[in-house]
Amino acid sequence: VAVLGPHIRQMSFEVGLDVVQDLLATVPPGHPTESLVANHADPSKRYFNLNLLIRRQLISAFPGIQILDVDKDTVTDHSYHSYRRGKDKTQRQYSFVMLKAPKPVGI
C-alpha cells in the first residue's frame, strides 16, 4: 500500500517548459504523458500533474500496488505549509517513505 500525502496539485503546480521536460523524462516507459500536462494562460508555462506522475511511477515499480490519496493541495489548503504560497516565509512540509520487504516464501 502507498499513501500519497498532501502535496501540490496540478492546478497549483505552474512550471516552465524546461521543468515539464525534466518531469516527463521520469515517466516510466509505456505510460502515457498527455494527461500529465495542462495548458496555461502563459504559453511559456504549463500545469503539471505531479500526483499522476507519482502514481505511474509507483505502479511501474510495484505492479498491483494499492494507492491511497489524502487528496490535499498544499497550496490551496492553508492547513499545510507551502513554499509556493508563502515563499521564503513558510515552514517546510515533510514526507516519509517506508518500504517493507515481502515475507520470504516458505518461512
Describe the secondary structure blueprint for this structure.
Blueprint: E1 2-4, E2 14-16, H1 17-24, E3 37-39, E4 45-48, H2 50-61, E5 67-69, H3 83-86
Parallel strand pairs: 1-5
Antiparallel strand pairs: 2-4, 3-4
Instruction: Profile the largest sheet.
Output: 3 strands, antiparallel
Helix content: 10-25%
Total strand count, please? 5
Give the C-alpha Rg: 16 Å
Average pLDDT metric: 85
Overall outline: globular
Strand order of the largest sheet: 2-4-3
Question: DSSP strand (E) fraction?
Answer: 5-15%
Can you write the helix and strand succession as a string? EEHEEHEH
Distance between the termini: 22 Å
Low-confidence stretches: none
User: Can you count the helices?
Assistant: 3
Helix and strand composition category: alpha+beta
